[in-house]
Each structure stands twice: as structure tokens, then as C-alpha cells.
# Entry
Amino acid sequence: MIPGVYAFSYFFASVFFALLGLQSLPKNRPFLFILHALFGSLSFRRITDVTTQPAHASMIGMFFCVWIAHMSYVLCLSGSNQHPSIPDWDWHRAYKMCWNVRWVGTAHEAPSNTGKPRTATAPPNEKPSPGTQPPTKRPLFLLTRLLSILTIYTLNLLYEHTLLTLLPPFQPLDFAPSKHTFLRRLPTVSPRETTLRALLVLNFIWTSWAVISAYHHALSVFFVGVGLDAPHEWPTLYGSPWEMYSVRRFWGRFWHRSTFRTYMGYGNAVAGGMLGLRRGTVGHRLCVEFVVFLVSGVTHALTTRTLGYRAGYWEDVGWFCGNFVAILVETAFQALVRRVFGETGDRVRKGVGAVWLFLFFFWSLPKTQFPKVYHGVV
# Structure
């Protein structure tokens, strides 16, 4: 049998029920979502039939988690007032809503990575009005994205070659449970351990950015190239790396916003619907942010488990919740510094913040990544 035939069959069935649900009456949508989620989950469980390469399998697994979560929000939580209405049996409009996890082009669009509203883009064949920018021409968009894919691929080859050339091979014991802690073993920590932890931070950021960006660009080339989408419907995913000078800015300004609306929707449902917290209060905001990180941890844990790792899934949940705690700590510390010393210089603030972000990842990432490597090879 052709590898992945079941995975793709379940996937296309999941797509069919998602498109059907988007064009159905609101009362029928929860039932159709269940069918969509059922077949999507069956396909999700067959990720390793498609690829066993960890970075790519993990990316595909997260795609399923984000997509199913997005559809649950669209069909069951958001109501019909967020996305534009769909005429009966308009499959193309349904397709637009099905994959639009960032709600691009709608009143509910996720904020850009700059924290400012996205610059509106004039529709093709229309003269740009004040406040809009002219649409990107399709050939230029395709050429730019293809060159970007080639650049990412080349840089990744150089990155992997450099690591293999300059570094000695790591052994399973380098990831043993005794190595998960750092501060408590500080007097006995070796330079090899310190190097491994530093490389883990670099690898986490680079590999995530490179793999997800390359897939995103490749999909944009396909869907824009065949005419299903316009260039302005595929804005870039990530923000500037210069925004990485706090844990909050790492997730809010640099990282992709693919889950922003969905997970915020979950958070609002818990904070307002279940707990009765009033919007705009500190309690409501903290509850929403905690739910966002908790759901992120759960989706990563599900992917880790599905890929066959014997450990690391609970650590995924703990690590994302730990990021929420780190944001609370850094926010309180920043407020204290402003009260005692006043406003600090921009360079000092960004420099200290970048060091803090690196040290936090340096300390915390091995707690979630080392168990996967160790139990995967022992």
C-alpha cells in the first residue's frame, strides 16, 4: 500500500466536513465539526506514515492541532458575525474561511507582529485609496517567495553542516535526567553541557522559524500560483528577530500569530463564560493569557505523544505554562525598575531583556526537550 494513503484519505474527509459545516445552518455546525474533528484526528494519528523526520512531522502535527482548534472556534464558538457570510454552497468562500486561521481580510483579523493594525491592501484591479497600499503583483510575489524558500534551504544546509563539522557528537547521557537541572548543579556543570544548552536555544528558534516559514512560503506559492488566493492573503508569519528582548515580546512580536484568535477565543470563553470575569479586568486578562499558554502546551504535548516519544509531553505543558509565569515575573520586575530608577535607555532595556530571554530559555528548554531525546534513544 502507498505510504500515507490512510492519512491523506482521513485528511480529505476532514476537509470535506469542514467545508460542509461552514456552509450549513448554525444548528448543524457542531455535529459537522465532530465529524471534521474525528477524521482530522485519525489523520493526525498517522503523521508518521507521511514522514518520520522529527521537525517536519512535528510541524505537520501542529498544523492539524491548530486547524482543528480553528474550526472548533469558527463552527462552535465565534458565531456567524466574525467571518463574512457565505452564500449557499459557495465552496470557494468556504475554502477561504476553512484555512484562514489568522482571519486575514476580516474584521476579526489577528494583529500583526508589530502590534499595530495591518496596513490595508487594495483589492486587485482597484485604485489604492488613502491608507491602503497597492497590491503585490502575482509574479513578483511568487518570485519573492521562491527566492525566500531557496535562501532558507541554503542557510539551513550551512547551519547543519556547521554544527556537524564543529561539534563533537552528543551521547545519550548528555540528555540524561540528571542533566535536566542546571542551577542546582552549577559548580559541577561542564563546558560541554553549557554549549549543548546554548545550542538548544538556537536550534529551537532557528529550526521552528525555518521549517514553518518554508512550508508557509511553499503553500503560498502553490495557492497563489493556481489562482485560488491573492498575494495579500498570505502575509508573512513571523515578526522581526530584533523584537526578541522579553518573553512577552518573543511570543507577541516575533512568533507567528496563527493561533491568536482561536486560543484567545478559548480564553475568553473560560474567563467570561465559565468564570464570569468581567472584560477589561486584570483577572480576565490573566485568565485569557494563561489559557492561551495552557492550550499551546496541550497541543504540543499531543503532537509529542503522537510522534511516538515515550516522554516529554507533560513537560511540554509545563514549559508553556512556565512561559506564562515568566511573563508575570518580567512584567512585575519591569514595573519595579521603572518605579525605582525611572525609564531606562532603549539600548539598555533591549540588551538586558534579550539576555533575560536567552537565560530563561537556556534554563527551561532542556526540561522539555532532553526527555524526548533521552527516551527516544535509550
